[in-house]
Structures are given as structure tokens and as C-alpha cells.
Write a structure and sequence with these properties.
By secondary structure, the chain is α+β, with helices and mostly antiparallel strands. Helices cover 20% and strands 29% of the residues. Keywords: Signal.
Length: 354
């Protein structure tokens, strides 16, 4: 059913449902929350992920600023344009992640260098407003906006000719906004990369990640419909079957190229992969997208790789510098060959690219 496995075992770590304070539509409110995570660190260098949540009124573009306290410097960034002057760092949205409604989040990442120490920045501002995790209203009555999981989106709402993305949340997994936001950031980075490589790219739906409240708990997805003790494909296979049934999607389906991620897996047993029309990934990929399982480059490269299968490409036979080999771990320092570009454009979903 799927041709390539990505195996990096990790336990799912999920947060609890939370609520944030916002103001009514008549208010002019500003507020933000920032999560800064050092995802990996080595002598002289590090990788970091930054998640930004807009707690105030909707914005159409954002500028995040902070200052490093120990001489760190940004050397490479993705999902934002990052510049630095002395200790002061400025990150500006790119074209696809500038609009943030109330309660919406986006994320970006970067690699940097350090000497001596690498402390986390102590303060951030978003469009000039201090990010304290609260909202500063000028008028209006506060209301509560819970970040609870939405109901599954009917299949008729997804635009044909797009890459359609799902996050399936088992019944015993708490909703965590980092997951849909992080998965959206990963597929948007893949969207940017395909544009860079091919001169054209795929479209995403307005609801980039459809959150699906699963019908079963994690253990059911791990252990049901398995052959003996082989649980390797059970999780993604059970997710795949549930998504196809509930949303009336075929395998493959000419309307969409589908991506499914589920927050469940058995340690060292559950993986994922892809074939033309479908990408199916389990818990370690969902965790990685959420920024809690290693450097983001690996998850960006992994999505580019699996979407390559979704567009019809096979694995490369050697580590050849293309994302269809182990070279995807070197992302973004990897490139499609001309033959791979031609095959994508001529493949079963080449018409999705524009």
C-alpha cells in the first residue's frame, strides 16, 4: 500500500486542552504568546523552533522581535525571514503564514551559532506588543475562546486538486493546538520547497489541517487488524481505513493527494510511508511537526520525501543528494534531480501543481 518507511521512535507527549482570553469583535485587542524551543544543540551550533500564537484581534502580517543574551547568531531560517543586528533579532512572516486570526498560531525555525552559553531569550514582542501570554484590550468584554478540537470537516468542503491534510486524534489523546499548527507549518514548508525546485507547487485548503476526532483509543489503532506481533503498519493502516471511510476518499483519489498523521504508535514498531495519492504517518512525525521531537529540518525533509512518493516518485537507490534518498536528512541542502522533476510533473498528480 505504501512504499517507504520513516522510523524514529518516540512516545507521544500531548498537552491538555486550554482556554485563552480574547475580546469581542468590537474590541481592538493585542496579545500574544511565544514558545521558544532549542530542539537540538551541538558544540558551537543549535537548532530552535519558535511558535507564535496571536491572542488579540486578527492580524494580516506579523513581526516578532527578541534579543539574544549571550552573543548567539542566526545562521539559517525557514518559514520566516529572519535578520539580526547585534543582539536584536527580527523575524517577519513569509507569504503563506502572515494572517493569524484570534487564537491562531504559526511556527518557524532556525539554526544558530553560540559560544559559552545558549540561554533562551527572556522577552518577545509581536508587532510591537509584548508577548506575555495575555491580551490587552482597549474596549469590549472579555470572552473565553477554548482551544478544543473541531468536528471533522465534511469531504465536500475540501477543494479538488489540492493536498488534503488530516490529523487524527485518538479518543484518549488530549487536544493540543501545537499539532495542527505544526503539521500545517511542515506542509507549508514542503509547499515552499516544491515551488523552489519545480517553479510551481501544490495548493492547500483554507483549513490546512483537518482535525479528526478518532473513533478509538491509541491502543486500538496500534493492535487492531495486525498480523501476529507485527504492529508496524497497524497504526497508519487503521488511520488510513478510517479516513477513507469517514470522508469517502479512495486509494488513490483523483480529487486530492491526501496526508494523514495520527498521534499513536508503538515504540520501535510503528512507522509510515506513502504511495501515489496518500501519505500516512504515525506519532513520531506528528510529534516532530509539533516541535517536540528533534530538529525541524528532519521533519521538513521527511514530508518532502513522502510527498515525493505521493506524487509518484520511487526511492532513490543510493544516497544521491536528492530528497528521495537518505539525503532528506540534510534538508534543506538537498534537491530533486531533473529526472525526478520531470516525473513529478508527468505523474498522476502533476496537474495539481501550478
Amino acid at each position: 500500500m505504501r512504499s517507504r518507511l520513516l522510523v524514529v521512535a518516540a512516545a507521544a507527549t500531548l498537552g491538555a486542552t486550554v482556554a485563552v482570553t480574547a475580546t469581542g469583535a468590537s474590541a481592538a485587542a493585542a496579545g500574544c504568546q511565544v514558545s521558544y524551543t532549542v530542539s537540538s544543540q551541538w558544540q558551537g551550533g543549535f537548532g530552535a523552533g519558535v511558535a507564535v500564537t496571536n491572542l488579540g484581534d486578527p492580524i494580516t502580517g506579523w513581526t516578532l522581535r527578541w534579543s539574544f543574551g549571550a552573543g548567539q547568531t542566526v545562521t539559517q531560517a525557514w518559514n520566516a525571514t529572519v535578520t539580526q543586528s547585534g543582539a536584536a533579532v527580527t523575524a517577519v512572516n513569509v507569504g503563506y503564514n502572515g494572517a493569524l486570526t484570534t487564537g491562531a498560531s504559526t511556527s518557524f525555525g532556525f539554526n544558530g551559532s553560540w559560544t559559552g552559553s545558549n540561554p533562551v531569550p527572556s522577552a518577545f514582542t509581536l508587532n510591537g506588543v509584548a508577548c506575555t501570554g495575555s491580551v490587552t484590550p482597549t474596549t469590549g468584554t472579555p470572552t473565553t475562546v477554548p482551544t478544543t478540537a473541531p468536528t471533522p470537516t465534511p469531504s465536500s468542503s475540501a477543494v479538488p486538486g489540492t493536498v488534503r491534510v488530516f490529523w487524527l486524534k485518538p479518543t484518549d489523546v488530549a487536544y493540543d493546538q501545537r499539532y495542527p499548527d505544526g503539521i500545517a507549518a511542515v506542509v507549508r514548508e514542503a509547499q515552499r520547497y516544491y515551488k523552489q525546485e519545480l517553479g510551481k507547487t501544490f495548493k492547500l485548503n483554507n483549513t490546512v489541517v483537518e482535525v479528526v476526532n478518532g473513533e478509538h483509543d491509541r491502543n486500538w489503532y496500534i493492535t487492531t487488524n495486525c498480523t501476529g506481533s507485527d504492529h508496524y503498519w497497524c497504526v497508519v493502516g487503521n488511520m488510513h481505513q478510517e479516513l477513507m471511510r469517514r470522508f469517502s476518499i479512495s486509494n488513490p483519489d483523483s480529487r486530492w493527494l491526501c496526508v494523514g498523521e495520527i498521534s499513536a504508535e508503538e515504540t520501535n514498531q510503528s512507522g509510515g510511508g506513502a504511495s501515489p495519492g496518500w501519505v500516512v504517518l504515525s506519532g513520531h512525525d506528528a510529534d516532530g511537526a509539533a516541535g517536540i521531537n528533534g530538529a525541524m529540518n528532519r521533519w521538513y525533509g521527511g514530508m518532502v520525501h513522502e510527498l515525493g512518493h505521493g506524487f509518484g516518485l520511487p526511492d532513490s537507490t543510493s544516497t544521491d543528494g536528492t530528497p528521495m534518498s537518505g539525503s532528506f536528512y540534510d534538508y534543506p541542502n538537498t534537491h530533486f534531480s531533473q529526472a525526478q522533476k520531470n516525473a513529478i510533473l508527468a505523474g498522476p498528480y502533476g496537474s495539481f501543481l501550478s
